[in-house]
Amino acid sequence: MLLGLKRRLLLHLLRDPSYRFLFEPPPPGEAVSIDCETTGLNTRKDDIVAVAAVRISGNRILTSERFEATVKPSVKLNPDAIKVHRLREQDVADGRPIEAVLPDLLRFIGARPLVGFYLEFDVAMLNRHVRRMLGIALPNPQIEVSGTYYDRKYGDAPPGVEVDLRFMSILEDLRLPALAQHDAYSDALMTAMMYLKLEDLKARGVRLPRARAKPVAWYGGG
Length: 222
What we know:
Elements: H1 2-13, E1 30-38, E2 48-57, E3 60-70, H2 79-85, H3 89-92, H4 98-109, E4 114-116, H5 119-134, E5 142-144, H6 145-154, H7 167-173, H8 184-203
Parallel strand pairs: 1-4, 4-5
Antiparallel strand pairs: 1-2, 2-3
């Protein structure tokens, strides 16, 4: 009920009625895996340099239906971020501004749920620009794969068990192939693979065996 009220409020606040499609029922069984690469990890000051998304339909990843864009950021790249995603100033100089990328991205996503790893960060980076354009944040439901993984792996664990939620650790534990990490499309594709594997485990009521304890860790995104 509260979720419905929030969506009605967001729809009321929507500045541009041509984006009402964000509030329509999504195609049954579909979602979109999304990933952003950024100038740094400060959601208030840093900006997006690349964004990619791939559609998921049922138990299939529609790699032929993908979205990729290099974005020209409004701020300088942090040297530490360059070491992660290897995108330099000259690599993004010819990118489109985010204001030009967003309309295409939003139409690609539509009303589908968003799937991601450390999704809160990616959505926060996008919402800074979505709010300026539409007056609202993205209304799409959000699915955090690390949360689903935690439920399958540690949901019934006794207190004190150490948890490993690193991106590559989850990928390895699910026995999924590793692609080039910190490339927006590759990360979105790997996240989509995680999502489908975890949804299958959840549907079958299967829990992942807990291996030896590892330190708590999170992939920082960007």
